[in-house]
Amino acid sequence: MSLLTQEHELVRKAAREFAEKHVEPIARKMDIENYYPREVIREAGKLGILTPTVPAEYGGGGGDLRTAVVVLEELGRISGGFSLLVEAYGILFADAVNNFASKAQKEEVLPKVAAGDKIGAFALSEPCCGSDAAAIQTRAEKRAGEWVINGEKMWITNGLYADYYLVAARTGRSEDRHRAITLFLLRRSRCIELSPIEVMGVRGTGTAGIKFNDCVVGGDDVVGEVNGGWKILMHTLDVGRVAIAGVALGVARGAFEEALAWARRREVFNRKLVELQNAQFELAEMLAAVESIRALTYYSAYLYDTKSQEFMLMSHVTKLHAARLAVDVTRRAVQMEGGFGYSKESKAEMFYRDAKILEIGEGTNEIMKYVIYRYIEKNL
Ligand code: COS
Questions:
Q1: For the domain bounded by 122-227, which CATH number is listed?
Q2: I want to staple 51 with a disulfide (CB 3.0 to 4.6 A). Which of 94, 197, 281, 361 is the partner?
């Protein structure tokens, strides 16, 4: 049984063409100059690629999670940075808004974000707390019927350029941890102070530190319910973890293709590199890893699309393995290319750096194991 339909394959074709035509020319510029591809984002918007799961009535791709994974795989094969940018944009921000925001909020935000005219960012992590999300300190206080937000966020993808932020803030006591967190839709304004963060890989993604200085929003800017933000965060991260596996799949595939092309053209000891059994075994290891990521990722996306109870566990199993395997495949690709692989001329070098964040972002490997162990404790 194939987990992908003909429709998914059509999306793949369109995403691949888009990636080769529009992303390939700017992939290195993103990486080397930390260039944020504002124009290519607009181009992606025209095809529904930015927000694969947002309904077509809002200008999104109208697909399911498998559709999103197909898109992220194809983008990641060309640029880990562009794929991650779209993941944070289309899943963490737009899919969350689509799933949990009010009709009025969706009507305001989604058409512009889906088109790439306005940028959306998901703002959860803070300088104090990444893994321990229930400890966040950004605070929203009710004053005269409005909410006033103060605090600081960190590592926010697309944060530098966003017009809309989905902000997690504390709306009760710190001791109440995850039961006192609310999500707000915050529009870009002068109360927001942004600072760029230089990162090792997935560069050109507009990663920012953000300070909120008395940002005022109305009661109708609450997304979901007051003190009900945690459920939205966890659901969004569960989905995001499979989407990240889609990025990992693309990056690993891209690195494998690089290594294969290199081994076929490189001459060593009067032979092509690919004729040496070590190179053949390495390529076999890489493809085996790529196909393992593929199987896990599409299976988990299918579990979500079919509302299976197994989804939550499998999203964590998948993210854990996909991220590790992507680091392994990209490391092998660099090794196969030798000195060239270590140079800035090589795409394998970029993929290797791009892969590392996948073991950290949207839940570290350790958090994946924490959640999996909680499952064992409760169910087995
Ligand atoms: N999906 C759905 N629900 C989840 C969940 C998940 N993945 N993980 C935890 N929960 C639920 C628990 O079932 C529990 O629910 P109840 O209050 O109904 O019992 C609640 O959330 C609190 O869970 P727990 O007691 O395990 O909370 P902890 O604070 O110990 O742990 C973790 C929460 C570590 C799982 C959470 O903070 C987390 O995911 N951290 C990583 C954050 C992250 O990925 N940041 C990166 C953002 S990059 S965009």
A1: 2.40.110.10
A2: 94
